[in-house]
Amino acid sequence: MNASQHSAVSMPLPLASPGEPVRITAFAQGRDVEKRLAGMGLTLGCEVHLLQHEGGNLVVAVGNTRLALGHGLAQKILVTPA
């Protein structure tokens, strides 16, 4: 991570704007969440693009993969602008 990523304040993924690339900086609530998300390709430091945010559900792109996330799980993903 570079210095600007350390100084940026992390926010939950649902607060990001659609179309804005963000970088995962942390996972709230421990290792179980981290393992579950890693299985989907969401790992610390990876860049994610928020494609859609409607009714609490989110659609994100990680590389060439699109994932649908419920609001509860998305809240546990902390990000900063990429």
Give a summary of the structure in a few sentences.
23% of the residues lie in helices and 40% in strands. It is an alpha+beta fold. Mean pLDDT is 90; it is low at 1-6.
Label this structure with key terms:
23% helix, six-stranded antiparallel beta sheet, single chain, 6 strands, 3 helices
Written overview of the protein:
- The chain is α+β, with helices and mostly antiparallel strands and 82 residues long.
- Helices cover 23% and strands 40% of the residues.
- It has 3 helices and 6 strands.
- A 6-stranded antiparallel sheet has the order 1-6-2-3-4-5.
- Strand 3 and strand 4 (57-62) form a beta hairpin.
- The protein is globular, with a radius of gyration of 12 Å.
- The termini are close together.
Taking Cα atoms only, what radius of gyration do you get, to the nearest Å? 12 Å
Helix content: 10-25%
Count of discrete alpha- or pi-helical segments spanning 4 or more residues? 3
Sum up the overall morphology in one term: globular
User: Describe the biggest sheet?
Assistant: 6 strands, antiparallel
Task: Describe the strand arrangement of the main beta sheet, using strand numbers.
Answer: 1-6-2-3-4-5
